[in-house]
Design a protein that fits this description.
The complex is a heterodimer of chains A (about 325) and B (about 290). Helices cover about 70% and strands about 0% of the residues of chain A. Chain A is an all-alpha fold. Chain A has a two-stranded antiparallel sheet with strand order 1-2. The chains are: A mainly alpha (about 325), B mainly alpha (about 290).
Chain lengths: ~325, ~290
Amino acid sequence: MGWGAARRPNPVAIHLNLESFTMATSTAAAAPQRTSATDKRRRWKALKNQLPNYLFILPHFFLFAVFLLYPIFRGLQISLYDWKIMLTDQRWLGLANYQALMNDAVFWQVLRNTFWFMILTVIMNVTLALIVAAGLKHRFTGSDFFRVLFYAPGILSVSVLGIIAIRVWEPQLGIINYYFVNVMGFPRVNWVSDPTLIIPVLAITTVWWTFGFPMLVFIAGLHSIPEQLYEAAKIDGAGVLSAFRHITIPLIMPTMLFVVVTQFIAHMQVFAQPYIITGGGPGNASRSVVQYLYETAWKYFRYGYASAISVVLALIMIVVTIVLFSLMRRRAEY
Amino acid sequence: MSTMTTTHRAARKRLISKETRRAILMWLLFLPLGFIIIIPLLYMFSMAFTTEANQFVLPIRWIPIPPTLQNFNKIFADPLLPLGRWFFNSLLVATVGTIIILIVSSLSGYAFARLEFPGKNLLFSLLLFSLMIPAAITLIPVFLLLRTLGMLDTYNAIWWPAAASVTGIFLLRQHFYAVPRELEDAARVDGANRFRIYWQVCLPLVRGALVALSIFTFLGLWNDLFWPLIVLNKQANLTLPIGLVVLQQGSYIQRGLAFAGAFVASVPVLIFYVIFQRQIIAGITTTGMAGQ
């Protein structure tokens, strides 16, 4: 049960499948080589005929090279300088930015915050999405309505989410505390000013906003599990929970891998929720890595140091993605 | 034979009642979750039409009495908060950006699916390589580059870096693969050149994927806060998501105004969502794409 069997349209997986497909056809096309003069001329002619094809990829590839490929290497380079925007000669620092980063208590704190936020959000998102998807897999009266409704918050801008969340979690006059304290009589909780609560609060807010996406992906993934397996399990006397544990969970693993990796990548780069809702506070309790990067570069104009932050974040993300792939792929192949 | 029909009918009856039971169970399970999803949205709608003085009234008045357009009047009249301008800016950024991305991605996706040229695999693996690199690392170099090019505080700073994205190419390439080669051959025999084959034969056949790509690209550009926050500066140039953050800052903190702004920013996309729900949901489940 590897990527090939995954119905999920992971671009990478699709690419890998298609790549092996094109490779197979091209090796098949590699006929015995003859190197006569006419053959060379023919090949030259074919090449000349192929040259206009570059025009098709040229617009994108130019933009890609300028705004994506070159900046990747440029970012690595800038992180080695004390980069100031007005200077023509930048001061070379070597690895000093990275050394400073390793001793930067704020950086460690924002990294901890980000990991804690990411872990909470991914776990809640995946659990909720999978449970809801299992319920919405089969059609029933109103199932389409719930599907559309549950994805709806994801259509909103994060700025709208922020405006709503500030009012919802407000300690004195927010709707959560209204129901929590005034209606149900619990003691008042300061959701946004308590440094231990703020990350879970932001994670719950993010789950409200985003769980519809993994839910839809899981529904598609569940549809690709053959119904006969469940019927067979039923005949063997397995209950719903046991079928979920022994059929759904193992067979959903390729989808799970896609969801967990994309969720990890998205939430590790969280910025706007803490930026709008708390401004990173109280203190630094909800500041994320990307917010710290943003402020380092665009508030304090320390581009070199901010680049070092971005490189470290990128490295962490690449390493964790590889680990996730190898861990879950092993489980997926069982 | 009569026994057969009766058992059949009994089975069908059991089936229907089982389905009904299932539906009731699901409604009981999902209704609370549905409330949690919908209440903050209703809260935003009702507060947008509630006067500033009544914003803090508890218990919450879900239907504002009297409903007021005061917040909207204030927000559209205030020259410091040009919400109409921001709305138009967002529309411009998202529309032009979507068109640019559709053109460059479909050209390139078609070439990688259907055309042959030296170095194709190498170029394609470069695109693939970029997928593995988190976007954070390119923020500062792209910003500095745009500054050198004099593109900061213009929408060029949003459109062109966005058009460098590779996701559209992967999506469209895969759909162009499914176009039957015979159609292209027939067009070639009829004397169509390669551009016409792309434009008139293949592009119409991947319409579904183009629609999905344009919906998600549009929503992504319409909703994006982070990149416009970095590259845009002048008040008149801002897009709606930054405008909403401005509404929350400094001397502007007025709940009614913020909610009215959020209403203006979200109602068009919610209407869009309700109209295109089928395409959007099918788009997510078949392409794995999402706005965020």
